[in-house]
């Protein structure tokens, strides 16, 4: 599968964020709702209130709440139940579907493209994460081991499906429509409009910033009313795949989708599945190690200098105390009786030396793969959040 070519100046300094725009109100509401549900342990089937109640809670109008609800429904995290006011109506929390989330993640990967070597590296990385987690939980409860297995199944399924697509004779879609599964978009008028917008150009053109048109032009082209069209636009914006701007000659412009929206949906799935937060954080840590190790192998002198500049800015900010308390971890075998020595979670000294030696992947993993002791209460009955 051919990869999308991106401009060489995509990397920016630490001082300048990768994308400066602020979330639109509807996207912000949807994000806050999902983040709140994750923190609360995903209260499945709970009612979050009517559109009027949600509008009052977030200080926005009902139209914006409707757009936020559409985003949540497309992502599969909540759905609006119409009817008389009561405990069975309003925005209801859904159990996040494993297959649906896998499709979102796979669509993101297919949009940007992947090669056989990259797929092999991803499979090896997941396997190393699995081994690292097995070392952590070897002496813990079976329930914890089961949760680890459930958490990693998502990545196994996505990689397996992509490998099957690459090894078969079927053609992989070459347009942005792969970002959303058809069955997800066909459930509503806004979803259908979203699919039509995604078919306006190739994935490479989409990632480079293709002007799709003004709201008036696109509504006329699709035969859509403004309400449904704006809901479709918010769905795209929630994935970071488009942005709108006012003024002559502007309008709806495509953008390369952001990984953050997909990552948050994965977090929603893990929370909905009752995976303990400590396990989720350990998976995140190990995956982060693998990603940085792979990046270190490909680093050029120019990239290393850019990273060094960004990390110097980070170091100065940390020295000024602008970023709060750093994380602490306990490392296995470094203490007697207490279960480990507390060490500062400061990656700066090790990151500035990357890449080093003949095998930067191995160099980095050797520094950061020291197992972190899981919380002692993971093995206690009743310590794992119920769904």
Automatic annotation (TrEMBL):
Annotated spans, Disordered: 329-387
One of the record's GO molecular function terms: DNA binding
Key word rRNA-binding present: no
PANTHER family: TRANSCRIPTIONAL REGULATOR, GNTR FAMILY (PTHR43537), UXU OPERON TRANSCRIPTIONAL REGULATOR (PTHR43537:SF5)
The organism of origin for this protein: Streptomyces griseorubiginosus
Record keywords: DNA-binding, Transcription, Transcription regulation
Name of the molecule in the record: HTH gntR-type domain-containing protein
Span of domain HTH gntR-type: 187-255
